[in-house]
Amino acid sequence: MSDGPRPSFTRDRWRRLIPLLDQALELQGAARLDWLERLRAGEPALADDVAALLARHADLQRDRFLDEPASIRPAAGSLAGLVVGDYTLRVPLGQGGMGSVWLADRSDGRFTGQAAVKLLNASLVGREGEARFRREASILARLRHPHIARLLDAGVSALGQPYIVLEHVDGERIDSACDAGDLDLRGRIRVFLEVLDAVAHAHANLIVHRDLKPQNVLVDREGRARLLDFGIARLIDASPDGSASVTREGESALTPEYAAPEQVTGGDLTTATDIYSLGVLLCVLLTGRHPAGVARGTPAEWVRTVVDVEARPMSHLVTGTPRAGLRAALRGDLDNIVARALRKAPHERYPSAEAFASDLRRHLNHEPVSARPDTLAYRTAKFVRRRPVGVAAAALAVAGTVLFTAGIAWQAREARRQRDEASLQMARATAAREFMGFLLSAASTPGTKPSSGDLLAQSEALIDKEYAGSEPLQAEMLASVGEQYIGSERLEKAAPILERAAAIAGRSGDPALQARALCPLAMLRMMNGAQGEANALMQQALDGLPDDRLHDWQRVECLVYRGEFGFFTDQGEPMKRDGTAALALLDRIPIPATAKRIEAQAVVAYGHYLVKENRAADVLYAEVMRGLEQSGRDKTLMAADTCNNWALVHYRGNISRAEPLCRRSVELRRAIEGADAIAPSVTFNHAGVLLQLARYDEAERLYQESIRTARVRKEALIETDAMLELSELYMEKGDLERAAAQLRTLGPLLTGPHPDPYRKVQMAYFQGRLLLARGEAAAARDQFAAAVEVLEKRKSQLSLFVFALVGLARAHLALGDSAAAVAMAGRAIEVANGFVEPDEPSYLVGLSQAALAEASLAAGDRDRARAAFGKAIEHLTITLGEAHPATVAARRGLVTLGT
Amino acid sequence: METSVAALIVHAENGDKSAADALFTLLYTELRRLARIQLARSSGESTLGTTTLLHEAYLSMSAGGPADFPDRARFMAYAARAMRGLILNHARDRRARKRGGDVTFLPLDDAPEDPALQRLDLEQVGPALDELAALEPRLAQVVDLKFFCGFSFAEIAAMWGVSERTVQRDWESARIYLHSAIAGVTG
Q1: Are A804 and A787 in contact (CB under 8 A)?
Q2: What ipTM score was computed for the predicted complex, to two decimals?
Q3: Most C-beta atoms within 10 A of its C-beta, which of A10, A58, A873, B89?
């Protein structure tokens, strides 16, 4: 070819040249020359360029440039006889994603024996890469366990080929071995327990397998399970420049059946990843089928199945009459155990291989197992979403920030139950770290079971140690740990860590990473009462995020966080706005985000509730609940809390609708937390609703329970609330002595230098009730009036406000001041109407109307009384029921009035 | 996530970059899987039938897929792009190994490098083709289909529903472009 100067045209130039070239190529010989001349007349420079390209064309044709199609050339030669380290390759055993495996003889003359030599598809860059490979292999070599095939040696051949030498296991794949041995269910579970034992040992040494599948789990001639290739996937990955990426792609394409969702979506690979693969393996061993059912599909279908499709209970895989016995044996415990291992979210799986194993052992021993259908802690069920009906809400509205923070502490304590989070954190750290450093540190002392606090603290230490080289990862991990601290109420620990994360993220210049750290930090500030700072940080995070799809997910996370601010500020409109915006973004994000969607919906629903759009809130809560059911989360704490908050919507209106929701919340928690140990707020809420419905016996039992558990948990706020309401219950039942005694025990609440204003209001109201019942109307009036004064001043949103007004009206009535009684009852109706949408039935409106009717009657206004009784009956029948004493009394009142 | 090839192609055609990337990865891994199977089957043969690979990929990925699985031409356009990646990566690996100690796509071997690729600067081919695709996608596609996948002009013309001559002209234009754009092409 000609060696003339290479024309380097700009893109714009090419844009003009390509069509011309196309025309020129259409022509031949003289015609082409003519065409060129004509072009030259108008555009001489262009014509020159085209001519140069045509000359080049002649050259490349002569050169046959690109004439032969490219191809992939496989190798032909065999490696038998090749000496690798101390071994001579003999027979190929297989070819896998990671490389080819050879049976080899030891050839150094000193020892004899056979081993498996694996030639790895890995690239090692430079001497440093080699040293690192050897170092990490030497860690793996220390992994010794009767059910793990040992790594004997590792190195790099003279040709630069990295290899490892493994103990050769003469055995059969576990699935075929179980079939060949005709093992029954118990036999299969016993073999599988050996596998779990091996995995637990490796995990304890912070080594994750990441490629568990039947091909890697053999059963040897003695019938023992032996695991191959522990940590090898990691070893290959360790190439620092990522040049082994082609190998990794090949790998994941080869065994998608055993890949966990996070492996398919590129998430963090942790011990939980192994748990998932083990779940698939157990399902295959017990049913002969993959959890997803159908045998093989295209990789695309597998990816979809793994990421999107919730597996049905394993027993559904077993069909046909001959297998009915097996089906029955799998149903229940074994279904639940496998389902727990196969959860899409890593933290919802068994926290460890030991936990997995102990459930299987319990099953073998006919003891109850810990895995129950979907009873797992739902990570995002935290903050005030747990806000109990009437408690924290009341505290917020009346007492302000003092009680407010107490309420938050209580909320956060709830979250501590989700201890698995810390284990998850640890597992994440494990996967992302180099296993070297940590093995040497004191943290992995065997035989000790660290608490979640220890694990979090260790995660922190690990981050510093292991991610020193990668600031973005460091920031990401710190942000996660910070979030965990928030969840486990250690706000003081969360602060420095999130601040560090934010500082590091700030340096990165990556707006997504910055938002990742800033948004939880903003949440923390909000929880600490620093509303201004919270808003500023949140604004900074959101302003920094570019408005494009790449950052949609992070924006969603931040918007949901900001929406949750509303739980603290009681501002509904921003909640609705942020939640709705998050939902809109989620619609265009092409990943399944069921959990996030439900969270966002719950934010919007609570927003509706706050701005008294009860109907919209009701509809949306129903949708949240449906979402939870459809995604298999309807037996979770999130579901319990949703019911609880949903009940709140009806708490100041149609209270009969709150009852089944409270009941469900209580039942869910009993199933999750154990019958006697559930959060006192939940029983308290249910008791309060039952009290209003005049179901006194049930209410009393629940109040007693909530007082008992609150005492154990040192949750004074709820203990006091429950005791106060219990005294009201005694009054309703007519046991004034007991009510009085109960109130006396609470007297000390009102002493001390700073008596809580909310308690003072509550106490005044209950004293008023007691006094009125005893016939001391004047004293009662003063107590009610004192309560009403404070509640008026604070524009209270509490049902207590209505009750105090009704009490005041009745006291006036008892004192013969019917005009004042009418006025107070009228005000009560006004306040009660403010809690609900127009035309929505409300028991508070009903009770107020009944009070108005009686006051009107006393004032001689029979028409008004009749109308008020009518409205009272209307509201009360729907909300409290026909047989409720208040409904009955109103009906009687109307009857005595005549028509 | 909707990860079917059909859906990804629709998204990619609507300009969704992440869908295009996902599509590439999906096709790449599938081709690679098929390549491995084929290699295992045909030890001893000197080259891998890239055209066959593409046909197999189409069959395996459209099997059981939705009724609206994209037509062959649209599928091949994307698959050919993935095949280009596969071939270039493979060739790069081989060269890297020759330079001293590196990846083995397959067991160590002495088979000569594909002469079609021998004289190409592998680091430049990909970027040059991407650049060409930005200028005129059809020209880059014809290279993927003909050079990297071994389709004949007649096959490509049938796929696109154009005349064979048109395909040929596109091919020549593309060759001229690449010859100009790739430094280090030696005679």
Answers
A1: yes
A2: 0.81
A3: A873
